[in-house]
Amino acid sequence: MAYESKHHIGWFSLPGVKRLRSYQRSWLRGDLLAGITVAAYLIPQCMAYGELAGVDPIVGLWAILPPMVLYTLLGSSPQLSVGPESTTAVMTAAAIAPLVTTSGSNYASLASLLAFMVGVLCIVGSMARLGFLANLLSKPILIGYMAGVAVIMIASQLGKVSGMAIASDTLFGEVWEWLTSLNQLHWMTAIVSVLVLLFLLTVQRRFPNAPGPLLAVLLATTAVALFHLDQQGVAVVGQIPAGLPHFALPTLAVQQVMPLVASALGIAIVGYSDNVLTARAFAARNHYTLDANQELLALGAANLGNGLMQGFPISSSGSRTVIGDALGSKTQVFSLVALVVILAVLLFLRPLLALFPKAALGAIVIYAATRLIEVGEFRRLWQFRRSEFALALVTTTGVLATDILVGVGVAVGLSVIDLFARITRPHDAVLGEVPDLPGLHDIEDWQGAKTIPGLVLYRYDAPLCFANAEDFKRRALAAIAAETTPVEWFVLSTEAIAEIDITAIDMLEEFRSELLSRGITFGMARVKQDLYAQLKRSHFLTGTSAEHIYFTLHTAIAAFHNRHSR
Description:
Layout: H1 2-12, H2 15-21, H3 28-53, H4 57-62, H5 65-74, E1 82-83, H6 86-103, H7 107-127, H8 139-156, H9 158-162, H10 171-180, H11 187-206, H12 212-227, H13 254-286, H14 292-308, E2 315-316, H15 318-327, H16 333-349, H17 358-370, H18 375-384, H19 386-401, H20 404-424, E3 428-434, E4 437-442, E5 455-460, H21 469-481, E6 489-493, H22 502-517, E7 521-525, H23 529-537, E8 549-550, H24 553-561
Parallel strand pairs: 5-6, 6-7, 7-8
Antiparallel strand pairs: 1-2, 3-4, 3-5
């Protein structure tokens, strides 16, 4: 019985199960509408991604089934839509094609093996607690990333909404080819696209709670059936093949595994970056928390499931997530609803979507993309701090000019540089008294503020480490030199110094020795227990009398005033 109890506790502790156990009835309408609409959208999309990955189109639908179930149970985002997406599909094709050419291996089995390897790498990364790497993805990066993805989404649909065949697979290539081939525009397809897009924008403005994308799907399909638009050149989804995947262990031959290791690692990095960026963007928008390490585990489980069920590597879909969000998705119940619809289509309802026009699909994607470009947020960054605005622009530019991973990598690098710049030269303050204002304050902030003659109360607003040790020493000595009255005591307020490394401790020892040679007493105030323990282990405190370590600044000031009475 004890084992059974622990088993149930473990099952109920899964993020998805917790969410389902606290499900609210008011969420059901949004989840139902989102699930049905996302299903209608992802069926032709996932079939296309299957073809893009180099497998049969039906495998694209198979590859959505395990991830929907596994992510619902394990994922920490209630809104993220996982499954086939363009980046990992392209990387899968690039990784497998050379092996098929040289060894004659089965393409589908290699795709499943690659998904299996990606899943294992992500799960190992989760066990190593590497999800913290997502903390480097700041709000400006999220804003810039989503804007870049939105532009890519719009460019990728130009061919669908205009009825033109575009061969290029790069952003600028697609736009240029579309502009130079406008004479081949299929007017009926373009009219359907424009009408659907205008319908979506109108519904969004006048009836924001109405299921615009779902209504657009139904109206567009009805128009095709009534006016026989498919016979006038408007492309439709067409027949959807039947069938369900079955369990199959991938072949783990050394000659196949080794060449795929680097590709699997690359896909895992790209997939996780895309996954956590998209999930965090919607978490910030809708005010809920996200566990980055749990996301890494959930992504690994989803890919592992695909590796065992004849699929290929997957990540998250920004377009499907934003469609779900637009329809009011609240939990992963929307994914389960979409799963039921897909299973019903695969088993019974395939003819119903045959007349769905691809132009309407493209218009829905463009509509969804426009919701990802947050001009107001760019304006807010500009007003708040120009460096963060520049970071968002660099991210957008990087995503557009290179690819998603390189763009994010550049932005993360700049974000780390910006972080180090704040650590290496943080704010500091010389504290003094302000007339008619209680407490001690930065003398630079208040007119009429004065220091206590003979005493420098100095605050450094960052942990002390190798990166800022010399900066601290230089600025502390400058604070002493700025005093008009000879300095007798220097007291360091450590309220913002949570920790210290050995380089900084050695610097403090040199600093204290230099003060001693000038006849200046060195003291410390507001020393936290953790910092005190570090200073004690380093033997720094052996050179500082215990009476010069103070709990508060006021006790330090009192000791200074009574210095001659001892």
